[in-house]
UniProtKB/TrEMBL annotation:
Residues passing through the membrane, by range: none
The species this protein was found in: Plectonema radiosum NIES-515
UniProt-listed Gene3D superfamilies: Protein of unknown function DUF952
Protein name: DUF952 domain-containing protein
InterPro entries referenced in this protein's UniProt entry, alphabetically: DUF952 (IPR009297)
Pfam family, one: DUF952
PANTHER family with a match to the protein in the record: BLR1139 PROTEIN (PTHR34129), DUF952 DOMAIN-CONTAINING PROTEIN (PTHR34129:SF1)
């Protein structure tokens, strides 16, 4: 199993649980859902989501994803999901809160 991670807002995940699929706003605008590997996610969080609240980290089993996954990028290869993410591929959903300084650290629940 390869673990991939995706940062989302709580309200978006709640909608996905009802429909059975998570779409993410980039699927509509860019044609894929941005994801990260374990080594990339903190850098992404601190660059794109610094000081933001009400976030979750979706821990996804890449082998259970029904849509196509491509590893793409210029310097680093990031996993992109081309199509809606089936919610049963999500192994764990972890609260993803930044510290008082606005920066993120990897939650212990993801490391374990």
């Amino acid at each position: 199993m390869t673990l991939i991670l995706h940062i989302t807002r709580c309200e978006e995940w709640e909608k996905a649980k009802i429909s059975g699929f998570y779409r993410g706003d980039t699927l509509d605008s860019e044609g894929f859902i941005h994801c990260s590997t374990l080594t990339q996610v903190i850098k992404v969080a601190n660059f794109r989501f610094r000081n933001q609240r009400d976030l979750l980290l979706l821990c996804i089993d890449s082998e259970k994803v029904e849509a196509e996954i491509r590893y793409e990028g210029v310097e680093d290869l990031f996993p992109h999901i081309y199509g809606a993410l089936n919610v049963d591929a999500v192994l764990n959903v972890v609260e993803f809160a930044c510290g008082e300084d606005g920066f993120f650290e990897l939650p212990q629940a993801v490391v374990d």
